[in-house]
Amino acid sequence: MPNKVVFLDRDGVINKVAAPHDYIKTWNEFEFFDGVATAIKKLNDAQYIVCIVTNQRGVAQGIMSMEDVNEIHKQMRCELELSGAHLDAIFVCPHENGTCTCRKPQTGMFQQAEAIYQFDKNSSYMVGDSESDILAGKKFGVKTIAITIKEFAADYKCNSLCEAVNYILQEDVK
Ligand SMILES: [Zn+2]
User: Fold this and answer.
1) In whole angstroms, what separates CA 108 from the centre of its chain?
2) Is 120 a catalytic residue?
3) Catalytic residues per the record (predicted)?
4) Binding site per annotation, positions
5) What φ, ψ does residue 143 adopt, rounded to 5°?
């Protein structure tokens, strides 16, 4: 059976987004959506590799440091693991727009995952709430799921990570 990956955007998928033009800078500001740990655990149990791919331009802008981002991720992983859920990897683009090859909608973070894991793109997914997530997933060649009410050209649209995961697992048995 080929390895398969579910790539997850962070803000707007795992946790509530910051106010416009602001960033999640501390663990205090991080608020999980309901059911996220359960959803990720279902993916773990179904043998998916689960990776976060997140743009955090606030680092380039000096609003927060990479240490701040890493601390949030440490706490996030701790919290998830209390519920038996596990993230295999977290990829962060801390760069300014137009200065790198990893900021979504570019695919650099997906290629970082490809350097670590062997997986079948046809059985893999990108789940995101913004157009750059969907564009990046398409460019890389995985299936795309948009958690949004907006009109993105994703392969599937739904309202939450829980719904996205249920869809993935339902497709998996077909
Ligand atoms: Zn970057």
Assistant:
1) 14
2) no
3) 9, 11
4) 9, 11, 93, 95, 100, 102, 129
5) -75, 150
For the chain, what is the radius of gyration of the CA atoms? 15
Return the structure tokens found at 45.
Answer: 């149990």
For residue 122, the SS3 value is helix
Contact 66, 94 (CB under 8 A): yes
What would the two tokens of residue 145 be? 């799921």
Ligand 1: distance of its center to the CA of 171 in Å? 32
Per-residue confidence (pLDDT) for residue 1, from 0 to 100: 57
Pair 54, 11: CB distance under 8 Å: yes
Structure confidence by residue, pLDDT tens digits, 68-102: 999 999 999 999 999 999 999 999 999 999 999 99
Q: Detail the residues annotated as belonging to a binding site for Mg(2+).
A: 9, 11, 129
> What is the spatial distance between Cα 168 and Cα 174, in angstroms, rounded to a whole number?
10
Least confident of 85-94, 113-122, 142-151: 142-151
Q: Which long-range contacts (CB under 8 A, 24 or more apart) does 137-144 make?
A: 137/7, 137/110, 139/105, 139/106, 139/107, 140/107, 140/110, 140/111, 142/5, 142/7, 142/110
Please give the domain boundaries of the chain with CATH numbers for all domains: 4-172 (3.40.50.1000)
